[in-house]
Design goal:
This protein is mainly α and 532 residues long. The chain folds into 2 domains: 204 residues, no CATH class; 232 residues. Helix content is 74%, strand content 0%. It contains 23 helices and no strands. The relative contact order is 0.09.
Length: 532
């Protein structure tokens, strides 16, 4: 850690001189490696945009149910384009929360271990960190802006070039401004207050959307005019030019604010921000969000007594699982998605169609696999728990599998009941629906066990070993095979959703059962280790 401000003032050593000498002495290979690191990330972002372009168009095609019949619900008063402004504001809030989580000014572990213990001024360390924070905010916001423009292109059918250019410029300037604001907040150590404000703004925005929905439901003229004007402004170059000028003015204010406070960022804050940045980078490289999605220590402290009385009579394994579910908030993603799915189906035009229902089931399959795996991970991956708990490894895996099956079945029943209420699916063949939900729950449980046992992935080594595109595709398929098998167990549900009157082939039932058979093996206690 940095010794003290007094020590920093006594030693008039500038770290920039040492860094300048080190840069001058780098050979061509070292310079090329430094360039290639940045080049790889830019190339990865461009490739991701290319793939997301097709994925977003496909998602819009499915949500709007192109080519299939959809329910005309009286409560569906929103158009997808009407909600584009809400999506825009939520994207800005998400980027600001990301900047607050990342620091945004931070030092890597190696730099922190080297510089912070020295009694030198940190001015030359803070300024590059601030510059990197602004670049991170700029690129993150530009990436989100490109995704938003792709969505608008899919909804409107065409996008004027001035709107695209001004929109990207506005997003880039907003990202840099948000990074500067987050820098000042980091210097004042007010991240918790900023997160609460973000949550309040997001809640207020959703409340305003709900109020507008009620006004549109009762056909209030001024509300209809307001929503139409906002939707039209998203494709108006003059509106984007005005927004760009406002963002630039606010960005100048935030830059001056950050300039006044950046020198107050202490060394421990730089180290902590560097750890968060390293964790976020590892999450991207490994494709595993269990580390970054873990609850904060303050939240864990508040939840220590939550559920103790409710779970007191449960067996020890089930008590551990239920307490982890309640205290870590692993049920929040599932509940949030169910609420989002019901809200979209009931309030947005053309969403109530079979294609959207199938997409909702597929997304819920992935969310269940990730959420449940994070809850059951200690019981299926940490063999040292068997001794203090006095339970065999097979018994722990069996209880975890039963929990995963129960949680998945309840979530699928809630989604099925909600979609049935709004008329998106037909529930006449109730026994087939129950059987399909049981099979899908088996698949979700098997995928959760497999993902919970999944070790950390070094993607540079995994993809670096591929000699051609086919080998790389094979590696990626092997990594995603767990979730593909889980999605395959949903095939009976997809048949019931898309073709409710057609009999389901027996071979499809057999294949779905085979993909979910690992759960039954775990329940029987015949598989004690290894991947599922």
């Amino acid at each position: 850690m940095n010794a003290s401000p007094a020590a920093s003032q006594r030693v008039a050593f500038d770290p920039r001189e040492l860094l300048r000498r080190a840069r001058k002495r780098r050979n061509f290979a070292e310079k090329f490696d430094s360039f290639s690191d940045a080049y790889v990330w830019v190339l990865a972002a461009l490739i991701a945009l290319a793939y997301l372009f097709s994925a977003l168009f496909g998602m819009l095609f499915v949500l709007l149910g192109e080519g299939v019949a959809h329910q005309e619900l009286p409560s569906a008063v929103w158009r997808m384009q009407d909600l584009s402004f809400v999506l825009l504001m939520l994207s800005a809030l998400a980027i600001f929360r990301l900047m607050i989580y990342l620091g945004p000014c931070g030092l890597s572990a190696a730099k922190a271990d080297w510089w912070l213990p020295l009694p030198v001024t940190l001015r030359a360390i803070r300024r590059p960190a601030w510059r990197n924070a602004m670049l991170t905010g700029l690129f993150a916001s530009s990436f989100a802006g490109a995704l938003w423009l792709i969505v608008m292109l899919g909804l409107a059918g065409s996008l004027p070039l001035p709107v695209a250019v001004l929109g990207l410029a506005c997003f880039a300037a907003a990202g840099a401004g948000l990074a500067n604001a987050a820098t000042a907040i980091q210097a004042m150590n007010r991240q918790a207050a900023a997160r609460r404000i973000c949550d309040g703004v997001g809640l207020g925005l959703l409340t305003a959307v709900a109020v507008l929905w009620l006004l549109l439901l009762f056909q209030i003229p001024w509300a209809q005019d307001l929503v139409g004007a906002v939707a039209a402004a998203t494709l108006d170059p003059a509106a984007w030019l005005f927004a760009l000028l406002v963002v630039l003015a606010l960005g100048a204010v935030s830059t001056y604010w950050a300039y006044r406070h950046v020198e107050r960022i202490p060394g421990p804050a730089l180290r902590l921000a560097g750890e968060h940045q390293q964790l976020a980078m590892g999450t991207l490289m490994q494709g595993d969000s269990r580390g970054i999605a873990a609850p904060a220590q303050s939240a864990i402290s508040r939840r220590m007594t939550l559920g103790s009385k409710l779970t007191a009579a449960l067996p020890v394994a089930w008590r551990i699982l239920c307490l982890r579910l309640l205290r870590s908030g692993r049920w929040h993603p599932v509940a949030g998605f169910l609420l989002l799915a019901f809200s979209l189906a009931a309030t947005v035009q053309r969403i109530a169609n079979p294609l959207s229902a199938a997409a909702f089931y597929l997304v819920l399959c992935l969310i269940l696999a990730f959420s449940i795996s994070a809850t059951i991970a200690p019981l299926v991956s940490e063999k040292q728990l068997t001794q203090p708990l006095g339970i065999s490894e097979a018994a722990l895996v069996r209880e975890a599998t039963l929990y995963a099956m129960l949680f998945s079945a309840i979530s699928l029943l809630l989604l099925t009941g909600g979609l049935g209420l709004v008329g998106m699916i037909q529930l006449e063949r109730i026994w087939l629906w129950i059987a399909a939900i049981v099979v899908a729950a088996l698949g979700c449980a098997a995928a959760s066990i497999a993902h919970a046992r999944r070790a950390e992935r070094d993607w540079s080594a995994v993809l670096g070993g591929a000699t051609n595109d086919a080998a790389m595709a094979t590696q990626l398929f092997m990594e995603t095979a767990t979730f593909i098998r889980a999605a395959a167990t949903f095939s009976p549900i997809f048949c019931l959703v898309l073709s409710p009157a057609t009999p389901i082939p027996p071979l499809l039932w057999v294949a779905a059962m085979l993909f979910g058979a690992n759960s039954l093996i775990h329940v029987a206690g015949r598989k004690r280790g290894g991947a599922a």
